[in-house]
Design a protein that fits this description.
The N terminus and C terminus are likely disordered. This protein is of the alpha/beta class and about 750 residues long. Strands 1-27-4-3-2-5-10-7-11-9 form a ten-stranded mixed sheet, with helices on both faces. Strands 15-16-14-13-17-18-19-20 form an eight-stranded mixed sheet. The longest helix has 27 residues. Helix 4 packs across helix 11 and helix 9 crosses helix 11.
Length: about 750
């Protein structure tokens, strides 16, 4: 990202012209960066020095006394060049923001450069470690990397002339820096080596190594961060070996690559059966590799320092991994795309990418209200431009992938293998594809915090403890109790929760979740035309829902004989399908209700609406619900609702206003309520109007916007936790362009 730097505010002024300019590379702005620069300012004290932060992003709250030059470039060399253009000192010191200076370091630098023969100098970056992963990295740096020509960059050795220095401790005269044109290095990772080569080849100046100019830096932890740095170093060496052979010769920097190829060939001989297997050659090569490792191991085991035997043994075991990582990265740099072509990402806003994980999708034959809830919101998120995925189980006749209403549905596993297959599919196929996960709990959540590092939101319709009690037997019942009641609150302790009702929230609080971490987002209601109702001449009762024991349809069937005594023409229409249908049909026949109770099964939307238009009231005798969307949908069609006074239903039915609540399981109370309401047309009319108004307040658009805000705030909070902002202070900022929303390309 080119452009001439412009100054925002006054330049930092010193009482006298600075002799030394400390130019510090700042890759990310966070609290640690601010502490590091404040420590440098303390060391500088009254020395004629200035401190300049070569930052990728604007930093208006940088510590007072630091000049910020913000330039959005992937290459550290480009950022150093722009910062050096603003420097006033005759000595330029290029440092890293992890570096800590020792007392008197600036004075020693100025004194060292009083010798006119010194053009470029630098000292080692000594590893500082407190924890075991850092001590292991320090041992490898001192003993393993110390055997290479660049070993002096990580340990104190005798003063001498060298071919290269590290970019974390590089000192150069201002006039020499400008004579060779600065870094001008688009490559990522090889900036200092390239600059040292230009100074030696163009000007014929020596590169001086002076241990008295050493700095210290906290070592990257082993294995993750340390191996990531090793890979970046190896890739930069490979890239330079292809483009500037004289800067990075094959010997010795390609030797670990040769070892890597030998190891890969050796493994191939051992794993792949071939005729006339060269066992002797394989054993000889293996022995040579073992000897090579043993030589390095001895250097680590007997290296100077205070590290304990445990640290040394672990570092010894990690040596092969370091060599292999470097070798693979070197080949990637040599044969891969040029690092000089890497540029930071443009500052464009892309839509949020949302992955929904649910045990079923809307096309599943057994899908219900939970799937409708998520599908209606998911398709509206897709209409907003978001990339919405849905990971779920396969069912008979389904395809592995499908696009439904803008949602990319991916189906894996079956009823008993779904949870394992979801974790495997995410880790090996979907990781990095999405920004946030909506983990839908249907009795048992998918425990996504155990395998996904991106932000997550847990969606809960209702707590299933009652289902486990009613419909399962030990030990399955005990397992369900433990998974939902103990493991789920532990795993999702820090995860935002979405509940569909206040009752569900209260149940979650009872499990141990914090109330302030729970967001209530009600179900929406598809807009209908209630004025098209054509009530039947005889009383008709509508009961819609999946036929399972928890839905309590048996209660309303047992109430029908009592209703028929008062209203002989009454009819009950049961819409829905499920495993409990056969038992319910036999119950209706045994009560001689075959002519008054009709099982319709699943009905298309228009047929269901026609049946609802003829009904006088609707009933919902469920044992519990997360919200009771069928009750609100019935109200939207102008139907008063008689429902069980249980969690979820008492949230969706306003007792005495949009319907009546009666004790759960009491078929006599249901019968009395039905007879009373069916015989009172004025009250039904009032409840019908109130139900339509109540349903209008619950739109899917509103629910979608509420969930969208929860998702966005969760992602923002996750990013802030990964990159905390430094405490506000005053500073002078120099920027080349707006970079607040710019993302930096990953060059690793």
């Amino acid at each position: 990202m080119g452009g001439t730097a412009t100054v925002e505010g006054d330049s930092h002024a010193l009482d006298e012209a600075p002799v030394l300019s400390l130019i510090v590379a700042v890759d990310e702005v966070h609290d640690g960066t601010a502490r590091s620069l404040c420590d440098m300012l303390r060391i500088v004290g009254d020395t004629p020095c200035e401190v300049i932060a070569a930052s990728r992003e604007a930093w208006p709250d940088a510590p007072d006394g630091v000049t910020v030059v913000a330039y959005n470039a992937a290459s550290r060399g480009d950022r150093f060049d722009h910062a050096a253009a603003q420097a006033s000192g005759r000595i330029l010191a290029f440092l890293d923001d992890r570096v800590r200076l020792s007392e008197g370091w600036p004075e020693r630098v100025i004194e060292y450069f009083e010798d006119p023969a010194v053009s470029v100098a630098g000292g080692p970056v000594l590893p500082r470690s407190r924890w075991r992963p850092e001590r292991i990295s320090a041992l490898i740096l001192n003993s393993h990397l110390g055997t290479t020509p660049s070993g002096h960059v990580s340990r104190a050795e005798r003063p001498r002339t060298v071919t290269e220095l590290t970019g974390s401790n590089l000192l150069i005269r201002d006039d020499v820096f400008r004579d060779v044109g600065g870094f001008q290095s688009p490559s990522v990772g090889g900036e200092a080596v390239r600059l040292c080569y230009k100074v030696r080849s163009i000007l014929g100046c020596d590169i001086n190594y002076e241990p008295d100019l050493a700095v210290v830096a906290t070592t990257r932890r082993f294995p993750g961060p340390f191996l990531a740095d090793t890979a970046a170093y190896g890739r930069a060496r490979g890239d330079m070996a292809r483009r500037f052979r004289e800067v990075a010769p094959f010997f010795p920097y390609a030797l670990p690559t040769l070892v890597t190829l030998i190891v890969i060939a050796e493994l191939g001989l051992l794993v792949i059966p071939v005729p006339h297997h060269p066992w002797k050659a394989a054993m000889v090569v293996g022995a040579l590799l073992f000897v090579l490792w043993l030589v390095q191991a001895v250097g680590v085991l007997f290296a100077k320092g205070r590290s304990g035997p445990g640290d040394r043994i672990l570092a010894t075991l990690g040596l092969p991994l370091v060599s292999l990582t470097y070798g693979m990265a070197f080949m990637r740099g040599f044969f891969g795309p040029s690092l000089g072509e890497i540029s930071p990402l443009r500052g464009r806003r892309r839509p949020l990418r949302v992955l929904i994980i649910n045990w079923r999708d809307i096309s599943h034959p057994w899908s219900g209200g939970a799937e409708i809830y998520m599908h209606e919101i998911g398709r509206r998120l897709a209409e907003m431009g978001m990339d919405v995925g849905w990971l779920t189980q396969r069912h008979k006749g389904s395809s592995r992938t499908e696009l439904l209403d803008g949602i990319r549905v991916r189906r894996v596993g079956g009823r008993f293998t779904l949870y394992l297959r979801v974790a495997i599919s995410y880790l090996f196929k979907l990781r990095g594809r999405y920004d946030i996960i909506v983990d839908c709990e249907n009795g048992i959540p998918f425990f996504t915090p155990l395998f996904a590092r991106i932000p997550k939101v847990l969606l809960v319709h209702h707590v299933h403890r009652e289902i486990f009690r009613r419909e399962t037997h030990p030990p399955i019942r005990w397992l369900g109790y433990w998974l939902e009641g103990s493991l789920m609150p532990t795993v999702y302790k820090k995860t935002p929760i979405v509940a569909v009702s206040a009752s569900t929230r209260d149940d979650l609080v009872g499990l141990g979740f914090k109330s302030e971490n729970i967001h209530i987002i009600h179900n929406g209601v598809v807009e209908v035309a209630p004025l098209q109702r054509e009530p039947a001449p005889e009383p008709r009762i509508l009961c819609a829902g999946r036929l399972t024991p928890q839905k309590g349809v048996e209660v309303i069937i047992r109430a029908m004989p009592l209703v028929l005594k008062a209203l002989p023409d009454a009819h009950l229409d049961i819409v829905g399908q499920g495993p409990d249908r056969t038992r319910l049909e036999r119950l209706a026949w045994s009560l001689k209700l075959a002519t008054h109770v009709r099982f319709h099964g699943y009905l298309p939307g228009h047929a269901r609406d026609e049946l609802a238009a003829k009904a006088w009231v609707a009933v919902c005798p469920s044992a519990f619900e997360g919200w009771g969307v069928s009750c609100v949908e019935a109200g939207a069609r102008g139907l008063p609702v008689i429902a069980s006074n249980v969690n979820g239903l008492r949230d969706s039915v306003r007792d005495g206003i949009t319907g009546l609540l009666v004790p759960h399981g009491d078929h006599r109370a249901f019968a009395d309520a039905l007879v009373s309401l069916l015989g009172d047309p004025e009250r039904r009319a009032d409840m019908s109007a109130a139900g339509i108004e109540w349903a209008a307040a619950h739109s899917w658009e509103r629910s979608t916007n509420e969930l969208r805000m929860v998702l966005a705030s969760t992602v923002d909070a996750h990013r802030q936790n990964e990159m905390p902002v430094a405490a506000p202070q005053s500073s002078t900022a120099i920027t080349s362009e707006p970079v607040e929303d710019v993302q930096i390309a990953n060059v690793g």
